[in-house]
Amino acid sequence: ILHLNERICPIKLFGGSQQQEAVAAESEPEPLSIFRTQENDPACQSEKHFGQYYTLPSAHVRTVFPHGLPMRYKQQVKTFNEACMMVRPPALEVISSLKKTDNSKPAVRYLFYGLKGSGKTMTLCHTIHFCYTQGWLVLHVPDAHLWVKNCKELLPSSFNSSRYDQPLQATEWLRNFRITNEPFLSKIKTKQRYVWTKRESTEEGSTLGELVDQGITRVKTSSDVVGAVMKELRLQSGQPESDFRLAVAVDGVNALWGRSTIRKMNNTAVDPEELTLVYNLRKLMKNDWTGGAIITTLAQTGAVYTSKYSYLPKELLGEKGFDSMDPFIPVSVPNYSEKEFESCYLYYMDRHWLQYPHSRTEDGKKELIFLSNRNPSMLERICGFH
Amino acid sequence: MAAHTSRAFLSLGRINVPGLGLHKSVSRVTYSTGLSTDSSKATTGSPQKGGKKVLSKKYKREPGDPRTELMPVDQDWTAVYPVATPFIPDAIPLPVRMGCPVKGGAPPEKKGNLELIKIPNFLHLTPAAIKKHCEALKPFCTEWPSALDTDAKCDEHFPIKVETKSYVSAGPSIRNPAARIVHLSVKLSSLNLNDQARKKMLKLVGDRYCKDTDILTITADRCPLKQQNYDYAMYLLTVLYHESWKIEAWEAEKTVADMEEYSWEGSLSQENILDVLVRMKEAGEGEGEEVREQLLGRREVQEYKDSVTRLKNEGENESTMLQYKEAVKKVLKL
Fold first, then answer.
1. Using a CB-CB distance cutoff of 8 angstroms, which residues of chain B are in contact with residue A287?
2. Which residues of B268-298 are buried (b: 16+ CB within 10 A; e: fewer)?
3. Average pLDDT score over residue span B50-68
4. Which residues of A touch B312 (CB under 8 A)?
5. Distances from the Cα of B313 to the Cαs of A77, B260, B264, in angstroms?
6. pLDDT digits (tens, 9 = 90+) for B176-232
7. CB distance A312–B316 less than 8 Å?
8. Taking 90 as the threshold, does the pLDDT of residue A219 lie above it?
9. pLDDT above 60: residue A355
10. How many whole angstroms separate alpha carbon A339 and alpha carbon B19?
11. A and B: number of Cβ contacts within 8 A
12. Do the bridges between strand A292-297 and strand A246-251 make them parallel or antiparallel, or are there none, so unpaired?
C-alpha cells in the first residue's frame, strides 16, 4: 500500500492545493491535492478543508480511541494502514463552539442526529480528537447501548440495594479510560473518602489513578468506582484550582432513557435507572456542572425496542430523555454532499479500494451514487464489492 | 334420350327442390340415372340423407342492416332506451369493444359480446333522460328560498345537516333495511362551547370528529325506523352539548399525560431553562420570583418557548429542529 504522504516533496502549502509532481506515476497529482489536506490538527481546520481527508497520527489512534471507533472503520484503518477522517461541517460547527466555551458557564450539550450510517459516530470521534489535542480530559462512552443489553453478570449494588451493578462492562470501560487519560491520572486528587469494604477504602487526596486501579483490580466494586470517578470529575471541573476541562462524549445516548433487555432473577425487566452505570451517567448528562462540554450522538443501530427507521431526536430520546437533555443543541449529520462524495470516491480510488475498471468510468460513479444514495456507510460497503 | 330426360329432370329437380319437396322420386331418379334399381335401392340411404339435408334448409331471409345505420344523429335517445334494458348491439350506434384482446389484436367487437350484456348499463339515464325526469318531478317541488344563495348562508342558518338515503326497487317487498341509517353532521364552531367544553366534547366524541373540516358526524342506525334514528341522533347531540358544559369534581385531577396540547408554562423545559440562565448569572442580582419574571420576559426566552411548543405539538421535522437549534443558541448566548 502506497504511503503517498511520504513521497510528497517537502514544499507543502496550507490546504495542500499545490501540484505534487514527485508523486508516483500511477495516480494523478490532481486528486491528491483535492481530497487530502495536510492540516492534521483539528483546531486549525476550517471551511476550506470541507470534504478533505486529514490523517490521524497512529499514536493518537491508539490512545484516544481504544474503544471509540466504529467496527468497519477500524477494519479500514487496518487495511489502509492509515486513519484518515473527512472534515465535515457538523463536526467543525461543534468544534468552533467548543473553542468558544466559557469555563464558568454550565456545560452545553450537543446532540448529533441523522439517518443510519450518515457519519454520526465518526463526527463524534473527530470532536473527541479535537478535545484531546487541546488537552481536555475525555470521558468517552463508546456505546451506551452496551450497558443496557446482553449483560452476563448482574450483581445487586452494595452501595444502594435497589440498584444493580455490571462489573464486566465497568472494568472494561475503566481500562479504556485509563489508556486515554494517562496524564491526568496522577494530577487529579479525590476530594472525598470512599469506603469499598470493611478493609478497603480510598482516602481523600489520593490520585485518580489509584481509584481507577482499585476498580480494575477489584472487579466487584468497579461499577461504584465508575460512579466515584464521574462524581469527582464533575465536581472538580470548572473549579478555579483545577486546570483541566472535561469533555463527556456519549455515543447512543438514547439508551439511557430507553428500555433495557436485561432481566432480573424473577424475569421482570430492569429499568435503566436501576443500573448503577446508567444512573451515574445520567447525572453527568445534566448541565449542573461547569468547565466543559457534553457531546452526544443518537444511535438506532444498537438500540432495543426502537423502529429501524427512526432517527429524529424526540423519537429516539422519548419524552423523558428530551426533557432531561433540554436545552441542547441538535446538530444534523446529513449524507455526503456532492463535493464530499467526490472526495470519498477519489480517496477510495487512491487507496486502490475500487478494484474494477468499470468503477473508474463516469457510469461506474453514477452507479455508486445511485446504489448508495451518498450514504457514507452504504458507500463504504458497496465500494468493497466494486 | 335418357340423358336428355335426365337433364330435363335435373333442371326440374333443381327448380322445384327449394320450394316444395314434392319431387322426391324425381330427384332420386335424376341422380341415380344409369344405375340399376338394385343399386338405387342400395344407395337409398345417402340420397335419402342428402335429400333430408337439402330439405331442412328452410327459406331464410338475409338479415338486414342493423338499426344503428338508420338512426339519425339528432334522434331522441330516451325513446330508444326508455327503461333499463340489457345491451342491444344493434340498437346502440357506438363502436364499443369489450373483453380480453386477441393476441396482437383488439378486444372483441360488440356484436354477440356477452360481456357487454352481463354488465349493468346506464343508457336509460342520459342527461336528456334526467332532464325529462326533472321536468316530470317539477310540479311536485317548491322553489329554493332565494335568500339562501350561498353555502355560507346555508351553514349559518341551518348548521345541522341530516343525511338519509331512501331506496326504490321492484321486488316482493318495498322496504329496505338500509333506509333507516341517519347521518347528522354539525360544525363545532357553530356550537357555543368554551375551551374546556370543547376539549371535553372532543374527548367524549372521539373518532366522530374530523379535525380538518371541524365537523362532528353522528351516525344512528340502531333503531328500526328512520324517524326513530333521527330522534336518537338529535338527542345525542343535545346530551353531548350539555354534558360538555358540566364540570365534574374528578376533572380537576387531569394530569399532564391527559393534556391534548403541550403547554410550556409549568413544564420541565421552563424549569430547565430558568435554572440554566440563573446559573449563567444572566439576570444579575435579584430574588427568586422577580428574577424568574424578568427572565421570562426576555425575547430569547420567548422564542425558545415558541420553538419548544412548536416542536412538541407539531412533531419534529427539519424546520422545527432548526428553529429549536437557533432558539437554544440565542438563549445560551453561543
1. 276
2. ebbebbbebbbebebbeeeeeeebbeebeee
3. 75
4. 314
5. 45, 9, 11
6. 999 999 999 999 999 999 999 999 999 999 999 999 999 999 999 999 999 999 999
7. yes
8. no
9. yes
10. 97
11. 51
12. parallel
Q: With beta carbons less than 8 A apart as the criterion, state whether B310 and B252 touch.
A: no
Check if B266 contacts A (Cβ < 8 Å).
Answer: no
| Assessment of whether the complete model's pTM goes beyond 0.90 | no
**CA distance readout (Å), B99 to B89, B109, B117:** 15, 9, 12
ipTM confidence score: 0.82
- CA–centroid distance for B329 within its chain: 53
Whole-angstrom distance, CA of residue B78 vs CA of residue B80: 5
**What is the per-residue DSSP string for B258-308?**
G-SS---TTSHHHHHHHHHHHHTT-S-S--HHHHHHHHHHSHHHHHHHHHH
Of the given ranges (A290-304, B175-189, B270-284, B292-306), which has the lowest mean pLDDT?
B270-284
Cβ–Cβ gap B269/A323 under 8 Å: yes
* pLDDT tens per residue across span A136-154: 999 999 999 999 988 888 8
B236: its cell numbers: 345525542
How far is A262 from A173, CA to CA, in rounded Å? 19
Is the peptide bond between A327 and the residue preceding it cis, with omega within 30 degrees of 0?
A: yes
Report which of B67, B71, B105, B73 is spatially closest to residue B89, judged by C-alpha positions.
B67
CB A90 within 8 A of CB A340: no
From B286's Cα to the closest Cα of chain A, the distance in A is 19
Across the interface, do B321 and A312 touch by the CB < 8 Å criterion?
A: yes
Q: How confident is the model at residue A33 (pLDDT cuts 50, 70, 90)?
A: low
Cell of A100: 468558544
Q: Is the dihedral of CA B92, B95, B101, B103 positive or negative?
A: positive
Return d(Cα B323, Cα B308) in angstroms, integer: 9
Cell numbers linked to A103: 469555563
Question: Residue A74 contacts by C-beta under 8 Å, 6 or more apart in sequence?
Answer: none
The beta-carbon contacts of A316-319 under 8 Å, at least 24 apart in sequence, are A316/A113, A316/A254, A316/A258, A317/A253, A317/A254, A317/A257, A318/A254, A318/A257, A318/A258
Which 3 state secondary structure label does DSSP give B317?
A: coil
Beta strand A246-251 with A137-141 is parallel
3-state secondary structure of B76: coil
A11-16 contacts at long range (C-beta below 8 A, 24 or more positions apart):
A12/A38, A14/A38, A14/A39, A15/A39, A15/A48, A15/A49, A15/A52, A16/A52
Gap from A173 CA to chain B (nearest CA, Å)? 30
Q: Can you give the length of chain A in residues?
A: 386
Q: Which of A312, A313, A326 sits opposite B272 (nearest CB)?
A: A326
d(CA A39, CA A43): 9
